[in-house]
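User: Show me a protein chain along with its predicted structure.
Assistant: Here is one chain, sequence first, then structure tokens.
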Amino acid sequence: MSFFVALGGGRFRATPWTRGPWDPRHQHGGPPAALLAGELAGAGSPDKVFARLTYEILGAIPVGEVEVEVSLERPGRSVELLAGELRADGRAVLRARAWRVLGSPVGSDPGPEPVALPESEQAPPGLLGSMTGYAHAIEWRWAVGDWDARGPATVWTRMRIPIVEGLEPTPRQRVMVVADSGNGASNVLDWGTYLFINTELTVHFVREPVGEWVCLDAETQIAEGGAGLARSVLSDRTGPVARGAQALLVAPR
């Protein structure tokens, strides 16, 4: 089992485990974001670290065959800009830009340690529990909130399956596969009544993550007549590693 199967030549087949909560024909944003992050890591200079990854979601990403292309857009000795694109049926559905920089020679206070890892998990209920997909491919252990709660939430996550069949996911991919879940974990509206879909995802990394567990600490704000914003802090077992943000389209189902 895996989110994707490599077909060669930059092509991948998305499996049903990529299905998102809005439509079983479409992928959740997490798996393709993690797939692109892995491909971007192979471009540019390996001596630099990722500082920021931004994804523009151009349309629904179908559960089917996709093609990935990455390039070095702006080379440099100290910083570099990478670009990536994911296409389905010849149409671009996801674009990414990633800044890599030389590692800092000094550090500051890393911030508070994340909440303790709960002992038990909770299976996805209701709409999320009615079909095999992304929600079932991740182990969820809620520390604050739960599946049916509204408002800010903190949940520990661990991938059950790899991003690409036969390949061990990197810690950064483990972060990216759940970074797109901030709006769902901290939802403030009823899943069955409203859509709250992100049009983009931006993740700033403060350091390289380690290990297989990722803590997602998220909060969603929605302004009537305006837009929605989901913000998150992503941590490993030792502390914060990244901060994420998602702009949200909010509409009746």
